[in-house]
């Protein structure tokens, strides 16, 4: 799509259920995801899980706000789609898979279109820096959160 698209993975020294417990607790994501400043729940499903939230993300270039809808496929996948926000579009996911010996591979994917105006500024080193925050760093942040719990 645009300048903020890609995926990254990490193997975590914890069983799938332990990793899922952190991934599905999206309300605490700002505590461990760099740049994600707020996650305000607007709607919950019948199980009490957040399914619609307002978020703010500071990319150091601009603070983006979004209303995001979440869907759960426990314990292997969490998906989200922007319903309204500063980006033209955004969707992403966490996918978890058991890799043996009590370890889990976590793959984070983000596909965001910042729009024509913002997209013109996201080039070269700046694009790499933002990608490092919003995509490449996410699996390592999850790994640190899970393994320190």
* Secondary-structure element order, N to C: EHHEEEEEEHHH
**What coarse outline follows from CA principal-axis ratios?**
globular
The total domain count is 1
Low-confidence stretches: none
Q: How many β-strand runs?
A: 7
* CATH class categorisation: Alpha Beta
Helix and strand content put the structural class at alpha+beta
Q: Measured on Cα atoms, how large is the radius of gyration?
A: 15 Å
Question: What tags apply to this protein structure?
Answer:
149 residues, Alpha-D-Glucose-1,6-Bisphosphate, Chain A, domain 4, 7 strands
Explain what this protein looks like in three dimensions:
The protein is α+β, with helices and mostly antiparallel strands. It has a single domain (4-148), classed as 2-Layer Sandwich (Alpha-D-Glucose-1,6-Bisphosphate, Chain A, domain 4). 28% of the residues lie in helices and 47% in strands. It is built from five helices and seven strands, in the order βααββββββααα. The protein has a seven-stranded antiparallel sheet. A hairpin with a 5-residue loop joins β2 (36-44) and β3 (50-58). α1 packs across α5 (138-148). The longest helix is centred in the C-terminal third of the chain and has 13 residues, at 124-136. The termini are far apart. The mean pLDDT is 90.
């Amino acid at each position: 799509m645009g300048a903020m698209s890609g995926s990254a993975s990490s193997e975590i020294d914890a069983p799938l259920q332990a990793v899922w417990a952190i991934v599905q607790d999206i309300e605490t994501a700002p505590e461990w995801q760099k740049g994600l400043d707020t996650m305000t729940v607007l709607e919950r499903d019948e199980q009490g899980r957040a399914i619609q939230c307002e978020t703010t993300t500071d990319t150091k270039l601009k603070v983006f706000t979004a209303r995001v809808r979440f869907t759960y496929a426990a314990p292997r996948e969490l998906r989200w789609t922007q319903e309204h926000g500063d980006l033209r579009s955004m969707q992403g996911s966490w996918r978890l898979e058991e890799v043996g010996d009590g370890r889990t591979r976590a793959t984070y994917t983000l596909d965001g279109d910042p729009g024509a105006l913002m997209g013109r500024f996201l080039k070269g080193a700046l694009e790499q820096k933002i990608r490092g925050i919003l995509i490449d760093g996410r699996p390592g942040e999850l790994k640190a959160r899970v393994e320190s719990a």
